[in-house]
Amino acid sequence: MFKFTYYRRIQVSFLLLIFIPLIAVSIISFVLIRDTMVEKLQLSNDNFLNVMIDELNKTIDDVTFASHFIVNDTNFRANLKVFADTERLNTYQDYVHFTQIQDVFSLINSKPLNNNIRMYLVNRKHFVISSGTENLSVINANMDKLMGRVNIHEPETLQWLGMADSGSGKSSSYYIARVIYDSREKQQVSVLLISIPDAYFNKLLGPVEFGKLALFDSRGGLIAGNSELAPEGKEARGSVRTARAIDKSNWELVYEASEKEWSGQISRTFYSGIGLVLLLFIVFSATSMLIAKRLHSPIMKLQRVVRQFGMGNLDVRLEVKGKDEIAELGQTLNTMLDQLQGLIHDIELEQEQKRVMELEALFMQIRPHFLINTLNSIKCSLILAKDKLHSGIIDSLMSLLRAYLKVNEPATLREECRLLSHYIDIMKIRNEIPLELEVDLEADTEKLIVPKLILQPLVENAIVHGLVDHPAPRIVVRARTIPDGIMIEVEDNGCGAGAEILAGLNRRLLYKDDEQDGTYQRVGLINVVQRLRLTYGQDTRLSLHNLPQGGVSVSLYLPQGNHQVNLSEREGY
């Protein structure tokens, strides 16, 4: 009979590996072709930018020629010196000098090959002489801003001032300045301003077939071109960026083409091919997922059954269908769960029986001889004193006897302290000591469930070993809530105990040493610890230490847990 085993299912899954080489080859081919196109595009961009740089260098050469001519012409400099402080044409002589300067200036302006260049002479009073006949309102509107950029202390060199608005808000010009300096008077005679309109740059950097082109000055300011580019911008992923510097002006020409622009056709071809591959991959993947789901379903059922069994649902079992390996595994699992359930049931019964036996054994170790001695002492006292008021002591004793008879039943901490008060009344008569008991319980601890007569051995130890001969014996019982549990303390004001004795007792109590040495003190303390650990768990601790003012303090730590009950729900109290 044919079985669709895991081995064959794995074979089906491996069919998906057919698509991995196909996709890898497609991607590698695309990367190689794209890299080749990038190299060719870089070379084409270099040639394209070189043509533009040659044109810009010619314009800069024209500007340099005109500025050198003006600076080096002696007669022209003499006329500029005479006209340096003229604010307006007030006299005929001023007009004559103005006309002479303008005629020479117009002649110089006609020599540059580029007719887009405009030149202006600005004297020390900001009087402007133009090389042409254009309106001077634009240059006058920007005069303060432009002259603020000029460094008067750098004569004889071209200063690149940057772009300035024309005033209309629709066009602007790039300005270049050269200071005409009088070395004898050590001050400028005039400033030559040269403007190149943005229309010239926009025509030169006109729309390209694809990509973005921009021209920046030495400060990184945009002269013309696409404003989305930056002079030192990070190249976008997949884009091609070429930047060339123009040495004569410190300008930078930047071209950038995005991947979408330069690789459109190859990308479309690649994406069409990869789309077909992905379509086939999706179809086969969907088939594989359907198969994997059917494979994984019984495994998930196995997992849920095991998880629920681990969380305590011992009756959960797997529904077995089919005859494949999973079905056999499920049947085996059900058999194992049946065996585990029976084993757990047997262990629980055994642990419960062991716990009851341990409690009974521990309770048998509490010697009741002090009750007989107490009855005898009280009887003698009553006979000698002929005092019926001491009958209350008999009531206290009877209360303790009733507690012993119901020692297996739990009690609240408040009830335990009430039994302690009866026990103290008896011990006061028995030992003839003025013993006092003080109880200080926080409200949250009064209903704490504790084993009955759990504190009586601690109080008995305090009386026997520290308070018999004390002139004013006193015992204090405190209980308070701490962050991780509850702390109960029993303190006395007796003579204390030796440090070595306390250290030895604490070690035995801490490490759960159950070995008996025959002394009553050790039996009482170990019984208390064992009863508490059987009730609250192994994290329960008991420790002893001397108090600074004298006496011994016994501290009981009970770990965090729900130990409070409603007294109305408990019978017998």
Structure description:
The structure is a single chain. The protein is α+β, with helices and mostly antiparallel strands and 573 residues long. It has 16 helices and 16 strands. A hairpin with a 5-residue loop joins strand 15 and strand 16. The longest helix is centred in the first third of the chain and has 54 residues. It is elongated, with a radius of gyration of 54 Å. The protein starts with 5 loop residues before the first helix and ends in a 14-residue tail after the last strand. The C terminus is likely disordered.
Features:
5-stranded mixed beta sheet, alpha+beta, 5-stranded antiparallel beta sheet, 51% helix, Helicase Ski2, transferase, 16 strands, hydrolase, 16 helices, HATPase_C_sf, transmembrane, disordered C terminus, 573 residues
Structural class comes to alpha+beta
Total strands: the figure is 16
Strand content: 15-25%
* Distance between the first and last residues' Cα: 72 Å
Strand order of the largest sheet: 2-1-5-4-3
- Provide the helix percentage: 40-55%
Number of contiguous helices: 16
Assign an overall shape: elongated
Q: List the quaternary state of the chains.
A: single chain
The biggest sheet, with number of strands, parallel, antiparallel or mixed sense and barrel status, is: 5 strands, antiparallel
Rg = 54 Å
**Uncertain spans:** 513-521, 564-573
Mean pLDDT across every amino acid position? 76
